Amino acid sequence: MGTGTGTGTARRTGDDGGPVEDDGFTEFAVGAWPRLVRTARLLTGDFHEAEDLVQTTLAKVYARWRRIPRGEVDLYVRRALINNNLSRVRRKRVVHLLTPVLPESLRHTSAGHAEAVEQRTALLAALADLTARQRAVMVLRYWEDLTEQEIASVLHCSIGTVKTHARRGLAALRAHPGLAAAPAPPLPAPTGARR
After folding, report:
1. What pTM value is reported for the model?
2. Mean pLDDT across the stretch 111-118?
3. Which of 133, 162, 168 is nearest to 149 (CA)?
């Protein structure tokens, strides 16, 4: 395959010099990119790693695009995203020394913006403390709104395993110091009551 540059932009061309058809892959990738990056960011905890994860996933999906049944594209891509993230976590080649969350742009400043950023940062930190499987279940269940059956299908596990990861993940999130509810202020003693 070669690269044609007739209009100044690179296009893939086949062996015969004609353009290569992608059977809707480009349209799918462009439409799914924001959703996949959001999901990947929740899985990785880092925007740049999320983009890398999605790009790697889409490159692998493209190689098999013609063989994926059109009715199973979303399932296949989610499964590939989760599996690529699990592989990334297992490798652990890079130690994160940079700040995990960049400061938000000033154009988003509002009265409750600082609190929202603080909550988002705490949530990302709490998700990062979960195991990769628990994090995957939490993201697929509560952000992607998949059913337990769909999650089991994506993760190639039983529904019971999904429920266990969900239960343990929720317990860990509830116990996380960054997400723990602020203690209630002490109640004043009732007036006129004797002890």
Report:
1. 0.58
2. 71
3. 162
